[in-house]
From TrEMBL:
<dbReference type="InterPro" id="IPR011059">
    <property type="entry name" value="Metal-dep_hydrolase_composite"/>
</dbReference>
<dbReference type="GO" id="GO:0016810">
    <property type="term" value="F:hydrolase activity, acting on carbon-nitrogen (but not peptide) bonds"/>
</dbReference>
<dbReference type="InterPro" id="IPR013108">
    <property type="entry name" value="Amidohydro_3"/>
</dbReference>
<dbReference type="Pfam" id="PF07969">
    <property type="entry name" value="Amidohydro_3"/>
</dbReference>
<protein>
    <submittedName>
        <fullName>Amidohydrolase family protein</fullName>
    </submittedName>
</protein>
<dbReference type="InterPro" id="IPR032466">
    <property type="entry name" value="Metal_Hydrolase"/>
</dbReference>
<dbReference type="InterPro" id="IPR033932">
    <property type="entry name" value="YtcJ-like"/>
</dbReference>
<feature type="domain" description="Amidohydrolase 3">
    <location>
        <begin position="42"/>
        <end position="520"/>
    </location>
</feature>
Amino acid sequence: MQYFKNGKIFQGEAKFCEAMGIENGKIAWVGDNESIKNENALDLKNSLVIPTFIDSHTHPSMVAKNIDRVPCLPPLVNSIAEMIEALKKSPQNTGNPNDWIEGYGWDENVFSEGRLPTCKDIDKVSTTQPVIVYHSSYHLIVCNSKAIEIAGVDKNTKDTQKGKIGRFENGEPNGIFYEMGAINLVANKQKPDSLEDTITQVLKLGKKYDSLGVSAVADMLCLFHPYDRISIYEEAKKRGFKQKVVLYYEWGAIKKLGKKPLKREVGDIFIGGIKLFMDGSIAGRTAFMKKPYPNSNDVGMKMMDEAELLEAIEYARENHLQVAIHVMGDASIEFIVNTCKDIQPWLKDTPNIRLEHASIMSVPILKTMKDAKMSFGIAPQPIFLFSEYMAYKNNLTPDLLAMAYGMKTDDEYVLTTLSSDSPATLWVDPENLYTTLGASVNRVSSTGKDMNKKEAISVSKAIDMLSINGAKIMGLKDIGKLEKGYEASFQILDKDIFNIPSEELGNILPKEVYIKGEKVL
């Protein structure tokens, strides 16, 4: 057994121990220094030890893909003009008409021009190579005229059922494509990465997760094409990928395969559920709202009706899977909860229905969830409010803004986690969950705005939401706590995050990380 002593080992609210012993990847003992007789015990030198983080809502495939894309977000890019110049410097800008120039992370709310870019702007990057640039929310793209031409989209192309094509006043496409139904008109024309390239990207990302103290992730948008996502992770694991992965397959992709059964077998890498989209994003004004957005008659997009939701739930029941639903607007949340509240759960070890983002949770809806027959869990991301505060301020009325990502209130009624939704936010490194921890405790935006400090949570609560609560909502066993019988996955910090100013929490990084008892950092 390997012993650790002289530590401040976090075990829960105001609960710590000094020492622990690990064996066969598990915590076999916890106690005090005096109980250790082993001379080879590692001295923690009074360092704080906390569980590794579990990112319960993220998109590893997108994060890995972004390694080769041009970042178009602050502090690197603050205007459309700067975005154009950044894209011109892309290594993909080869002059070859078959090479796509790709970027990510832009947001019109931080551009000095104060407007959306269009294809006329992106044509300044290239008129011979296709260019595609993802919004920070990943719910819209902007592309150049060449990409529109390759997609075969013109003024006569109708909007898709689950997407919208942006247009100039004359009806011609303006280069903006909203939501996946429309985005895929363009994105599906790109040549997919090779299998080997995809595995290599995941392995690089695994090393980054090691350095950030992340031992498990939920991949919230898995597909079967061009490669079945689970096979990518299984091969990466053979080559040294350390993280646990729970996969959620996109409902549309499942239907395309004739609703072929998926099997849920809990392990290090397994299929946890299916992913549905109820609406869009608040930043893009496509989240489905009860009342119109400020200075608009638009209430956003409702992407699913009751029949489709119940069809997906029945499929999940038959295959013993969770249902994870992207839902941000208050009208969407109310629709989901009221449709599902009286359905008998089919899984006993984890929430059957996950509300992803759950941006605006009213107390009446939370009470309904708590009292429901159905078992619910929610996965909000306060990093949205932290990094995109002006978009939320511009797109929400004051009463709704005050409710946004109120995890303290949420947690009083229903299992609540913290997660990154990386890379789908306006922050350069959102997969670093210390940014999320800091935003949740400090409740001050990146621009210094008050994010409703009444919803601030304690450091202890934030750690739980990033560890044991994440394990619960993903259906993971024996991980997320530093107690006997749990997996020996922990991070050692050189600062005591319980005793530093809350505004410094986002700057923390672990100095050592262990996953299943193995030192990975």
